[in-house]
């Protein structure tokens, strides 16, 4: 189990500040996606920021039953378990299944650094996001899935090309975007087909 | 003026997605602060994530008149102007004054990529944060100021040492933390004095 960053006494705020210092490690978790321009891989902390601001920017399209503030909070939290469990690409189905127990343990350790009521609140929000059943979690998952697709469409298909991804994999793994946001999917589908014609997807 | 990332047609979502692709550049704006462990400088996108999740983690200390959702939104937005204007350390008073007009122009260009009502909403929220007068903006500024102090306290004073910062500069520039969050300041002050004894601050 990774070591916890030592922290200082901040009275009743000590645990929350210890949590904040520990999750600095998310800035060092590398994703397959690169920043636009392809100078380097993006990390899961900056991806979480990008996802959260996507929620705020696309709020008018979320639907009336979505609480965009909870979606933003899910974005901020959703990848923290990767500090212990690592990032696994959405198309690597075997690795994603294998990592599930590690993510549960990671949530317990990392959110467990917080005092109550935040410990329970953060854990429940992360679990709701993972389950993907509530309207808030579904919109959050649409954004989390859409961000790397949008990045690749503006980045010459970078992570698709580097990982030999096929168009049919992208279509099969993202049916939930089509179900939840048909208008967004209509445009994504057209651009994905164009990407295949350009050789960015097999 | 920096070029805008070319974007694709997404129907009524086109402008919001163009904005999201353009602000990917915040991931390449370097701060003086390094990630814990000091392998590299942190960038303003991952700092914005860290600040936003600090707001969520420290929400119980915000005070009853603070809307933590608006603080989180300020965190997500507050540094976007740095894409055009660059990051200036809080202790570089001359540079901070000089950059003000550039930040106004940057807000106009970058938030101007969005359609209404987001354009006006993002601009007004950024301006409120900059003005630092509302309770939400004040709590947001406390967190934005506290994060690099907390990072330095857990990172052997890295950006203070590298920039020859004196304890009296940190005290003079952060009186607003003392005014707004006296309990947090009490602990920070003690740790800052310890940091000077260790030679991390002059």
TrEMBL record, chains A, B:
<dbReference type="GO" id="GO:0046872">
    <property type="term" value="F:metal ion binding"/>
</dbReference>
<dbReference type="GO" id="GO:0005737">
    <property type="term" value="C:cytoplasm"/>
</dbReference>
<keyword id="KW-0479">Metal-binding</keyword>
<protein>
    <submittedName>
        <fullName>Hydrolase</fullName>
    </submittedName>
</protein>
<keyword id="KW-0378">Hydrolase</keyword>
<dbReference type="InterPro" id="IPR006674">
    <property type="entry name" value="HD_domain"/>
</dbReference>
<dbReference type="GO" id="GO:0002953">
    <property type="term" value="F:5'-deoxynucleotidase activity"/>
</dbReference>
<feature type="domain" description="HD">
    <location>
        <begin position="23"/>
        <end position="185"/>
    </location>
</feature>
<dbReference type="Pfam" id="PF13023">
    <property type="entry name" value="HD_3"/>
</dbReference>
<dbReference type="InterPro" id="IPR039356">
    <property type="entry name" value="YfbR/HDDC2"/>
</dbReference>
């Amino acid at each position: 189990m990774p070591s916890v960053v030592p922290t200082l006494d901040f009275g009743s705020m000590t645990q929350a500040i210890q949590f904040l210092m520990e999750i600095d490690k998310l800035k060092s978790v590398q994703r397959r996606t690169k920043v636009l321009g392809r100078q380097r891989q993006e990390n899961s902390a900056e991806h979480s920021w990008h996802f959260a601001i996507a929620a705020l920017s696309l709020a008018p399209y979320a639907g009336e039953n979505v609480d965009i503030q909870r979606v933003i909070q899910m974005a901020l939290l959703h990848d923290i378990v990767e500090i212990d469990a690592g990032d696994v690409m959405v198309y690597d189905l075997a690795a994603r299944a294998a990592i599930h127990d590690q993510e549960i343990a990671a949530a317990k350790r990392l959110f467990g650094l917080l005092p109550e009521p935040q410990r329970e609140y953060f854990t429940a929000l992360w679990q709701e996001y993972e389950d993907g059943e509530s309207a808030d979690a579904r919109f959050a998952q649409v954004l989390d899935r859409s961000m790397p697709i949008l990045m690749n469409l503006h980045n010459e298909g970078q992570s698709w090309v580097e990982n030999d991804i096929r168009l049919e994999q992208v279509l099969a793994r993202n049916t939930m975007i089509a179900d939840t946001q048909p208008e967004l999917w209509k445009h994504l589908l057209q651009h994905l087909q164009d990407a295949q014609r350009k050789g960015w997807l097999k």
